[in-house]
Amino acid sequence: MPKICLITTGGTIASKLDPETGHVTASITGPELKATLHDPLEGIDISIDEFCNVGSYAIDLPLAFALSQRISQRLGEGFDGVVVTHGTDTMEETAFMADLLVRSDKPIVFTGAQRQADEPNPDGPRNLTDSIRLAASDTARGVGAVICFEQEFHAARDVTKSHASRTDTFVSYEHGKLGEVDGDRIVLHRRPVLRRNYEASEIVADIELIKMAMGSSDRYLRFAADNGAKAIVLEGFGRGNAPPPVAAAVTELVKQGLPIIMTSRCQRGRVKAIYGNGGGKTLSDGGVIFAGDLSGQKARVLVSVLLGLGLDGKRLREEIEYFAG
After folding, report:
1. In whole angstroms, how far apart are CA 114 and each of 33, 147, 282?
2. In terms of domains, do 49 and 171 share one?
3. The overall pTM is greater than 0.70
Protein backbone atom coordinates (compact mmCIF):
# COMPACT_ATOMS: atom_id res chain seq x y z
CA MET A 1 0.00 0.00 0.00
CA PRO A 2 1.54 3.37 -1.02
CA LYS A 3 2.22 5.72 1.90
CA ILE A 4 1.62 9.37 1.06
CA CYS A 5 2.43 12.34 3.28
CA LEU A 6 0.02 15.25 2.84
CA ILE A 7 1.87 18.44 3.84
CA THR A 8 -0.47 21.40 4.27
CA THR A 9 0.62 25.04 4.06
CA GLY A 10 -2.69 26.91 3.72
CA GLY A 11 -3.75 28.75 0.59
CA THR A 12 -7.18 29.11 -1.01
CA ILE A 13 -7.77 25.36 -0.80
CA ALA A 14 -7.74 25.74 3.01
CA SER A 15 -9.53 29.09 3.14
CA LYS A 16 -13.05 30.19 3.96
CA LEU A 17 -14.88 33.41 4.75
CA ASP A 18 -14.73 34.75 8.28
CA PRO A 19 -18.22 36.28 8.74
CA GLU A 20 -17.02 38.60 11.49
CA THR A 21 -14.20 40.27 9.56
CA GLY A 22 -15.34 39.67 6.00
CA HIS A 23 -11.86 38.33 5.22
CA VAL A 24 -11.12 35.05 3.47
CA THR A 25 -8.34 33.35 5.44
CA ALA A 26 -6.56 30.00 5.58
CA SER A 27 -8.20 28.28 8.54
CA ILE A 28 -9.03 24.72 7.48
CA THR A 29 -6.95 21.98 9.11
CA GLY A 30 -5.19 19.08 7.45
CA PRO A 31 -7.73 16.49 8.66
CA GLU A 32 -10.55 18.71 7.39
CA LEU A 33 -8.86 18.90 3.99
CA LYS A 34 -8.45 15.15 3.87
CA ALA A 35 -12.17 14.77 4.59
CA THR A 36 -12.99 16.68 1.38
CA LEU A 37 -11.50 14.04 -0.94
CA HIS A 38 -13.85 13.14 -3.79
CA ASP A 39 -13.06 9.45 -3.50
CA PRO A 40 -12.03 7.31 -0.52
CA LEU A 41 -8.78 6.40 -2.35
CA GLU A 42 -8.76 2.88 -1.00
CA GLY A 43 -5.34 1.29 -0.99
CA ILE A 44 -3.49 4.54 -0.25
CA ASP A 45 -2.30 5.31 3.29
CA ILE A 46 -2.43 9.10 3.84
CA SER A 47 -0.66 10.82 6.74
CA ILE A 48 -0.94 14.55 7.47
CA ASP A 49 1.81 17.05 8.29
CA GLU A 50 0.53 20.57 9.03
CA PHE A 51 3.54 22.71 8.09
CA CYS A 52 1.84 26.13 8.20
CA ASN A 53 -1.51 27.73 7.38
CA VAL A 54 -1.05 30.97 5.42
CA GLY A 55 -1.85 32.50 2.07
CA SER A 56 1.03 31.86 -0.29
CA TYR A 57 1.54 35.60 -0.74
CA ALA A 58 3.00 35.37 2.81
CA ILE A 59 5.51 32.64 1.89
CA ASP A 60 9.07 33.84 1.34
CA LEU A 61 12.27 32.17 0.17
CA PRO A 62 13.40 31.02 3.65
CA LEU A 63 10.01 29.41 4.31
CA ALA A 64 10.05 27.72 0.90
CA PHE A 65 13.54 26.42 1.72
CA ALA A 66 12.31 25.07 5.07
CA LEU A 67 9.42 23.36 3.28
CA SER A 68 11.86 21.70 0.86
CA GLN A 69 13.79 20.40 3.86
CA ARG A 70 10.55 19.06 5.36
CA ILE A 71 9.70 17.28 2.11
CA SER A 72 13.16 15.67 2.09
CA GLN A 73 12.68 14.61 5.69
CA ARG A 74 9.31 12.99 5.04
CA LEU A 75 10.51 11.13 1.97
CA GLY A 76 13.49 9.90 3.99
CA GLU A 77 11.11 8.51 6.60
CA GLY A 78 9.71 5.95 4.20
CA PHE A 79 6.83 7.75 2.53
CA ASP A 80 6.38 6.83 -1.13
CA GLY A 81 5.37 10.32 -2.18
CA VAL A 82 4.43 13.76 -0.91
CA VAL A 83 1.50 16.02 -1.74
CA VAL A 84 1.81 19.68 -0.73
CA THR A 85 -1.28 21.88 -0.56
CA HIS A 86 -0.25 25.47 -1.24
CA GLY A 87 -1.67 28.79 -2.35
CA THR A 88 -1.50 29.39 -6.09
CA ASP A 89 0.14 32.84 -5.94
CA THR A 90 3.65 31.53 -5.29
CA MET A 91 3.15 27.79 -5.78
CA GLU A 92 5.34 27.68 -8.88
CA GLU A 93 8.26 29.22 -6.97
CA THR A 94 8.01 26.86 -4.00
CA ALA A 95 7.65 23.88 -6.33
CA PHE A 96 10.77 24.93 -8.24
CA MET A 97 12.68 25.30 -4.97
CA ALA A 98 11.69 21.73 -4.07
CA ASP A 99 12.65 20.52 -7.54
CA LEU A 100 16.12 21.99 -7.09
CA LEU A 101 16.71 20.79 -3.53
CA VAL A 102 14.86 17.54 -2.78
CA ARG A 103 17.21 14.71 -3.71
CA SER A 104 14.73 11.91 -4.35
CA ASP A 105 13.04 10.34 -7.35
CA LYS A 106 9.82 9.87 -5.36
CA PRO A 107 6.78 11.91 -6.48
CA ILE A 108 6.46 15.46 -5.13
CA VAL A 109 3.10 16.96 -6.08
CA PHE A 110 1.94 20.50 -5.35
CA THR A 111 -1.73 21.40 -5.60
CA GLY A 112 -4.28 23.90 -4.36
CA ALA A 113 -7.41 25.71 -5.48
CA GLN A 114 -8.64 28.88 -7.12
CA ARG A 115 -11.98 28.76 -5.32
CA GLN A 116 -12.12 28.93 -1.55
CA ALA A 117 -13.44 25.90 0.31
CA ASP A 118 -16.85 27.38 1.18
CA GLU A 119 -17.64 28.54 -2.37
CA PRO A 120 -20.13 26.56 -4.48
CA ASN A 121 -18.34 23.84 -6.46
CA PRO A 122 -14.81 24.37 -5.08
CA ASP A 123 -12.00 22.95 -7.18
CA GLY A 124 -9.80 21.95 -4.25
CA PRO A 125 -11.26 18.51 -3.48
CA ARG A 126 -10.86 17.32 -7.07
CA ASN A 127 -7.31 18.66 -7.32
CA LEU A 128 -6.35 17.04 -4.02
CA THR A 129 -7.83 13.69 -5.03
CA ASP A 130 -5.97 13.73 -8.35
CA SER A 131 -2.73 14.78 -6.67
CA ILE A 132 -2.79 11.96 -4.15
CA ARG A 133 -3.42 9.47 -6.96
CA LEU A 134 -0.49 10.97 -8.86
CA ALA A 135 1.84 10.84 -5.86
CA ALA A 136 0.92 7.19 -5.26
CA SER A 137 1.74 6.25 -8.86
CA ASP A 138 5.04 4.83 -10.07
CA THR A 139 4.48 6.85 -13.25
CA ALA A 140 5.32 10.05 -11.38
CA ARG A 141 8.68 8.80 -10.13
CA GLY A 142 11.73 10.56 -11.46
CA VAL A 143 9.97 13.61 -12.94
CA GLY A 144 10.77 15.96 -10.06
CA ALA A 145 8.38 18.33 -8.36
CA VAL A 146 5.17 18.96 -10.28
CA ILE A 147 2.01 21.03 -9.99
CA CYS A 148 -1.22 19.07 -10.43
CA PHE A 149 -4.29 21.13 -11.29
CA GLU A 150 -7.42 20.58 -13.37
CA GLN A 151 -6.46 16.97 -14.22
CA GLU A 152 -3.05 18.02 -15.61
CA PHE A 153 0.43 18.00 -14.12
CA HIS A 154 3.30 20.28 -15.06
CA ALA A 155 7.06 20.44 -14.45
CA ALA A 156 8.05 22.91 -11.74
CA ARG A 157 10.59 24.68 -13.96
CA ASP A 158 8.15 25.28 -16.80
CA VAL A 159 4.78 25.98 -15.19
CA THR A 160 3.28 29.37 -14.38
CA LYS A 161 0.05 30.80 -13.05
CA SER A 162 -1.58 32.39 -16.10
CA HIS A 163 -4.92 33.66 -14.80
CA ALA A 164 -5.88 35.40 -11.56
CA SER A 165 -9.09 33.43 -10.98
CA ARG A 166 -9.78 30.68 -13.52
CA THR A 167 -9.40 27.11 -12.31
CA ASP A 168 -7.28 26.12 -15.32
CA THR A 169 -4.71 28.75 -14.42
CA PHE A 170 -1.52 26.64 -14.57
CA VAL A 171 0.11 26.29 -17.97
CA SER A 172 3.55 25.47 -19.38
CA TYR A 173 3.67 27.78 -22.37
CA GLU A 174 6.79 26.71 -24.21
CA HIS A 175 7.09 23.10 -23.09
CA GLY A 176 3.58 21.78 -22.46
CA LYS A 177 2.19 19.70 -19.64
CA LEU A 178 3.92 16.53 -18.48
CA GLY A 179 0.73 14.51 -18.38
CA GLU A 180 -2.82 14.02 -17.16
CA VAL A 181 -4.72 12.43 -14.30
CA ASP A 182 -7.72 10.72 -15.87
CA GLY A 183 -9.62 9.29 -12.91
CA ASP A 184 -7.47 6.47 -11.59
CA ARG A 185 -5.25 6.47 -14.70
CA ILE A 186 -2.02 8.48 -14.89
CA VAL A 187 -0.92 9.40 -18.43
CA LEU A 188 2.67 10.65 -18.86
CA HIS A 189 3.36 12.48 -22.14
CA ARG A 190 6.95 13.56 -21.55
CA ARG A 191 9.70 13.79 -18.97
CA PRO A 192 11.39 17.10 -18.09
CA VAL A 193 14.89 17.57 -19.49
CA LEU A 194 16.17 20.76 -17.82
CA ARG A 195 16.58 19.44 -14.30
CA ARG A 196 19.50 19.52 -11.89
CA ASN A 197 19.57 18.82 -8.17
CA TYR A 198 21.63 20.42 -5.42
CA GLU A 199 22.51 19.58 -1.84
CA ALA A 200 22.24 22.91 -0.04
CA SER A 201 22.38 23.67 3.66
CA GLU A 202 21.30 27.28 3.12
CA ILE A 203 20.07 29.73 0.52
CA VAL A 204 20.61 33.45 -0.01
CA ALA A 205 17.25 35.19 0.18
CA ASP A 206 18.23 38.78 -0.58
CA ILE A 207 17.65 38.60 -4.32
CA GLU A 208 15.59 41.34 -5.95
CA LEU A 209 13.38 41.07 -9.05
CA ILE A 210 12.93 44.33 -10.98
CA LYS A 211 10.59 44.69 -13.95
CA MET A 212 11.27 47.06 -16.82
CA ALA A 213 8.63 49.45 -18.14
CA MET A 214 8.77 52.21 -20.74
CA GLY A 215 11.21 54.82 -19.52
CA SER A 216 12.28 52.93 -16.40
CA SER A 217 15.09 54.66 -14.51
CA ASP A 218 17.99 53.07 -12.67
CA ARG A 219 16.55 54.16 -9.29
CA TYR A 220 15.27 50.79 -8.08
CA LEU A 221 18.33 49.01 -9.38
CA ARG A 222 20.74 51.26 -7.50
CA PHE A 223 18.59 51.26 -4.38
CA ALA A 224 18.62 47.45 -4.30
CA ALA A 225 22.39 47.36 -4.81
CA ASP A 226 23.00 49.99 -2.13
CA ASN A 227 20.78 48.20 0.39
CA GLY A 228 22.27 44.74 0.45
CA ALA A 229 20.89 42.84 -2.54
CA LYS A 230 23.20 39.90 -3.29
CA ALA A 231 21.93 39.61 -6.87
CA ILE A 232 19.31 41.25 -9.08
CA VAL A 233 17.04 39.59 -11.62
CA LEU A 234 15.71 41.89 -14.33
CA GLU A 235 12.53 41.32 -16.32
CA GLY A 236 13.50 43.14 -19.47
CA PHE A 237 11.66 43.97 -22.65
CA GLY A 238 11.24 41.29 -25.31
CA ARG A 239 14.51 39.51 -26.01
CA GLY A 240 16.13 41.01 -22.91
CA ASN A 241 16.45 44.75 -23.38
CA ALA A 242 16.41 47.73 -21.01
CA PRO A 243 16.35 51.55 -21.26
CA PRO A 244 19.84 53.07 -21.72
CA PRO A 245 20.06 54.48 -18.15
CA VAL A 246 19.36 51.03 -16.74
CA ALA A 247 21.91 49.43 -19.05
CA ALA A 248 24.58 51.89 -17.91
CA ALA A 249 23.84 51.18 -14.25
CA VAL A 250 23.83 47.43 -14.85
CA THR A 251 27.27 47.51 -16.46
CA GLU A 252 28.61 49.52 -13.54
CA LEU A 253 27.12 47.20 -10.90
CA VAL A 254 28.33 44.03 -12.61
CA LYS A 255 31.86 45.45 -12.63
CA GLN A 256 31.48 45.91 -8.86
CA GLY A 257 30.73 42.18 -8.53
CA LEU A 258 26.93 42.16 -8.30
CA PRO A 259 25.37 39.28 -10.30
CA ILE A 260 22.61 40.53 -12.60
CA ILE A 261 20.42 38.09 -14.49
CA MET A 262 18.20 38.95 -17.46
CA THR A 263 14.79 37.41 -18.12
CA SER A 264 11.91 38.62 -20.28
CA ARG A 265 8.72 40.24 -19.11
CA CYS A 266 7.01 38.34 -21.95
CA GLN A 267 5.33 35.10 -20.95
CA ARG A 268 6.68 33.23 -23.96
CA GLY A 269 10.02 33.17 -25.72
CA ARG A 270 13.68 33.45 -24.79
CA VAL A 271 16.04 36.27 -24.00
CA LYS A 272 18.97 36.65 -26.38
CA ALA A 273 21.71 39.27 -26.71
CA ILE A 274 20.94 41.06 -29.98
CA TYR A 275 20.48 44.83 -29.68
CA GLY A 276 22.88 47.63 -28.78
CA ASN A 277 22.26 51.04 -27.16
CA GLY A 278 20.95 49.52 -23.93
CA GLY A 279 19.66 46.39 -25.58
CA GLY A 280 20.59 42.82 -24.81
CA LYS A 281 23.97 42.90 -26.58
CA THR A 282 24.99 45.93 -24.53
CA LEU A 283 23.92 44.15 -21.36
CA SER A 284 25.58 40.87 -22.29
CA ASP A 285 28.85 42.64 -23.13
CA GLY A 286 28.60 44.24 -19.68
CA GLY A 287 28.46 40.85 -17.96
CA VAL A 288 24.73 40.25 -17.51
CA ILE A 289 23.74 36.56 -17.43
CA PHE A 290 20.89 35.65 -19.81
CA ALA A 291 18.40 33.08 -18.48
CA GLY A 292 16.74 31.78 -21.65
CA ASP A 293 13.02 31.21 -21.20
CA LEU A 294 13.25 30.95 -17.42
CA SER A 295 10.76 33.35 -15.83
CA GLY A 296 11.93 36.13 -13.55
CA GLN A 297 10.48 34.52 -10.45
CA LYS A 298 12.05 31.13 -11.27
CA ALA A 299 15.42 32.75 -11.98
CA ARG A 300 15.25 34.42 -8.57
CA VAL A 301 14.65 31.07 -6.86
CA LEU A 302 17.51 29.46 -8.80
CA VAL A 303 19.94 32.25 -7.94
CA SER A 304 19.02 32.07 -4.25
CA VAL A 305 19.98 28.38 -4.27
CA LEU A 306 23.17 28.84 -6.29
CA LEU A 307 24.43 31.68 -4.11
CA GLY A 308 23.66 29.56 -1.06
CA LEU A 309 26.05 26.98 -2.51
CA GLY A 310 28.73 29.65 -2.70
CA LEU A 311 28.81 29.82 -6.50
CA ASP A 312 29.90 33.00 -8.23
CA GLY A 313 31.52 34.15 -11.43
CA LYS A 314 31.91 31.48 -14.10
CA ARG A 315 30.27 28.69 -12.05
CA LEU A 316 27.20 30.81 -11.34
CA ARG A 317 26.88 31.66 -15.02
CA GLU A 318 27.28 28.02 -16.08
CA GLU A 319 24.51 26.79 -13.80
CA ILE A 320 22.07 29.53 -14.82
CA GLU A 321 22.81 28.98 -18.51
CA TYR A 322 22.18 25.25 -18.06
CA PHE A 323 18.64 26.00 -16.87
CA ALA A 324 18.26 28.56 -19.66
CA GLY A 325 18.35 25.63 -22.09
Report:
1. 15, 14, 42
2. yes
3. yes
Q: With contact defined as beta carbons under 8 Å apart, do 119 and 38 qualify?
A: no
Q: How many CB atoms lie within 10 A of CB 118?
A: 11
Its domain, for residue 229, covers 207-324
* 325 vs 320: CA distance, rounded Å: 9
Let me know if residue 193 belongs to a domain: no
pLDDT exceeds cutoff 90 at 172: yes
Phi, psi of 236 (to 5 degrees): -90, 180
| Closest of 97, 121, 94, 8 to residue 54, by C-alpha | 8
CATH number for position 215: 3.40.50.40
**Tell me: the pLDDT tens digits for 118-163?**
999 999 999 999 999 999 999 999 999 999 999 999 999 999 999 9
Q: How far is CA 264 from CA 157, 195, 215, in A?
A: 15, 21, 16
For residue 161, the domain's CATH number is 3.40.50.1170
Query: Residue 310, by phi and psi: left (phi above 0), alpha (psi -120 to 50) or beta?
Result: left
